[in-house]
Amino acid sequence: MLASILLITPPFTQLNTPYPATAYLKGFLNTKGITSFQADLGIEVTLQLFSKHGLTQIFSKPLRVNEYDENIQRIYTLRNAYIQTIDDVILFLQGKNPTLAHFIARRNFLPEASRFAQLDDLEWAFGTMGVEDKAKHLATMYLEDISDYIKA
Fold this sequence. Notes:
The protein is 55% helix and 7% strand. The protein is mainly alpha-helical.
């Protein structure tokens, strides 16, 4: 009897552009009758990091205000709002909660830091595209703000 094979996509590859090698390999193994499984560590790590639990851990370290710029200080000040909204935002971006698009698009649901200062032409860019595309853009900026904090 052949052993099962686990194919792993390494973490920190581009999340919005799936790495196809493991999927192709799994498909090939299936045609040969070989049992195989696939795991994407990039998605697993990202989902743990961008979760209520993950953000609680990230924000648990006290911030020394004088060591960081205003943007990082703002994100830290809004940390409870980030912690309370992160799970819903991830579900929305995964397509599991599409009704959240209207709340996000209204711009009174997500905490906003410096990435949102670049929104001068938001209505022009998304006016004809629809609420869901606008909400995905805003949710992505929200995650980028959190990423700025993590990198600091």
